[in-house]
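=== Structure Prediction Worksheet ===
Name of assembly: unnamed complex
Input type: mixed (protein and possibly other molecules)
Chain count: two
Listed entries:
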Amino acid sequence: MSSVLEVRDLSVSFRTEDGSLSAVDRVSLEVGASEVLAIVGESGCGKSVTAMSLAGLLPRSARVDGSVRLDGVELIGADKRTLRSIRGREIAYIFQEPMTSLNPVFTVGSQIGEVLRTHLGASRQAARARSIELLKLVGIPSAERRVDDYPHQLSGGMRQRVMIAMAVACDPKVLIADEPTTALDVTIQAGILDVLRGLRERLGTSIVLITHDLGVVADLADRVAVMYAGRVVETAEVHELFAHPQHPYTTGLLGASPAAGRHADTHRLDEIPGLVPTLSVQPDACTFADRCGQAVDTCTTSQPQLTRSDHGLACWNPVGVS
Amino acid sequence: MSRYLLHRLWQSAVTLILATIVVFAGVRALPGDPALALAGEDRDPESLRAIREQYGLDDSWLVQFWQFVSHAARGDLGQSIRTGEPVNGMIAGALPVTIELSVLAILVAGVIGVGAGVIAAVRRGRPAEWAANALALLGLSVPNFWLGLMAILYLSVALGLFPASGFVPFFTNPVANLHHLVLPAMILGTGLAAVIMRQTRSSMLDALSADYIRTAEAKGLSPRAVIGRHALRNSLIVVVTIVGLQLGALISGAVVTERIFALPGFGKLTVDAVFQRDYPVIQAVVLVTATAYIVINLLVDLLYSVIDPRIRVRGES
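=== Predicted Assembly ===
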């Protein structure tokens, strides 16, 4: 499968008042055509920063190295004009907070139409007509009326559908969904995931799904990359990962998520002790070693590299191997 | 919306009545007797009494107040004690001068203030922001009268670019009219621009850090659309509030600037009336000012709902 999006050795660090802060360390990812890649991990593991860096959306204090290729076109270091012409047209984003991600003073129709007018040069009327089509596509009832609504007149789930309609307006190659369901009720979540699944099937859009919710991953993703402290520690096809997790962090994540029957005896989820470390410099060691139940000496003296295979792993002492 | 408007009009009426009472009592609480001021050198009791009788100053306050209110309600603001001229005419002569000056000054202030505020917010932490901040500080701290005098000295007297004083009505000669008002409007406007600039900057910074700005950037919009449309529109509420307050203040209080440029405006009328204890004129001036404030506030509130649809719905419900 040829990849639409190819990320090689992407590193991001931030200049702060307390010095440099490493957020992402040599991350490599590939997303194939109409594939859904999920990036999972705890808060602060660098998954959102990775997503934002793909189209150059990070603030000026960020230093981004490595390579991001979209259909062979290099995006890291590309000039602003090129990036602008790609954003919204070839790479589109959906964010976590539908409540605040839409501009409160413009109608949803004008906000969707803006993308069409900017990238496709659509006329006002054409943009409006297409906006109504898009609202229908994402399952908004009476779209002809809703197109003139302001964001505050819509529920959270409806707003997220509007965000999706806006994102797919120009039929982008890659859709980056950063925690698209986190702020929503469970029943609404299912509807949003259905919309995303439908888009992938109908439009063939590749999706990068950023989430900490393994239920969402199981529901939608084809492949998964597990991130910890700025690094990808394990990556595999979704069924393979859930069936044979090899990194102690992945097994920890799976153990921490609720599943029917599994925790019935203890009434308590398994937790991973400790917190994701904040790193100024990425150490030459496994960043998970401090929290890992089965760390060996090598883990603190040498950084494990992600193996390049169908089931990639960065661990000196994987689960179920030794 | 119409219910909201009715409610606002009722509020305005109450405000106006209260303002009238306060002014009426306030003027009479001032030390000084208009009869004495009018009589000049001739202070024999007989002529003082005659003057008091002529102007109804010997009536009780209640009677005087009723006279004032009942006449004002019919659009008659009385006669100047000093000159005997109808106050209506005096106001009709002075008000347009001040309104024109105020509107020009607000235009100058708005263009400079909003422009510099946006630049300061967008270029945060860079030389452009420091320059804008420094200019704002200068604008705030340099008194208008000094700036006015310097402008007259250098631009009018030395270079002869603008007339140093005086006024030509707009309908007599629009070009000469503007020529006379450019300098005072600039002087007034630059001071106000500083305030607008500071407020625009801070509300723009708020807006620029909002999630919807990130969305706008992710859509691939140009910086002009992101800043000028998405961020600025959300910052305008603050700007409109400030402009409204300033416009009200200008109409009642461009006194110093009007004095320096010898403009026959409202400020001059007010000051003259106060010095001469010209009760009817003072009362009328305050009444008109209060009305101006109320009208401007109403317009500002209506503008809010045009700018921000969330306010529209709240007003309707």
